[in-house]
Amino acid sequence: MNKAVKRIIIIFCIILCTALLIWLFLFIYEYRSKQEQLFSNYTLTQSEIDSLHDGDIILRHGYGLVSDGIVETLNKDINISHCAILTKDTNNQFIVIHSVSQSLSDFDGVQSQDLKSFIKDSKLNSVIVVRYRFKPGEDPSIVGKRAKYYLAKKIPFDMDFDLKDSSKFYCAELLWKIFKDNYNYDCFDTDHPDWHGKNYKLTFYPFLDPRHFKVIINHHTRKQV
Fold it and tell me: pTM, whole model, 2 decimals?
């Protein structure tokens, strides 16, 4: 066996071992995450549920490698990886409407979920609920109504994270679209001094801007807002 062949075999073995180690890491990571989620008893109290309004925004840190990556890469100061809109169903029960990639869900794009399971799918003490500071004359019910409109349209998930294309939405884009079109508020066009130079179109900081949103529930343990 000549040196060139030996070198190819060695390189192949190194690549194979590396791939196996990466697969094993991902498998163990996701398994532990799913076990933690499975045995979670995370809930809202009845008094917290009673404080909710149709059209409130709920933010959380979800389980899994993707959610953890979003937090560590873009939102590590606030420990949030996802956002959704609270509204009520025909039985007057709270549900959430949000956009999720099919890689993380059985269904791609804008979808609904009951509030209880949404909270259970959230890491312990990661939930924050905020409410837009509506101006006099603005109708708060439009938020939930438009969320239901996009739900009925079955808008797919925006893997390109492109705000110029309204045929698809990523989670924060759904909120951005509703507030921009109906309240003339562009949450990603901010002049907040602490946000200069950051890509906030992929973060959740704008929904914690006290000038535009009021915190209703805060279970955050890494940073108080």
Answer: 0.83
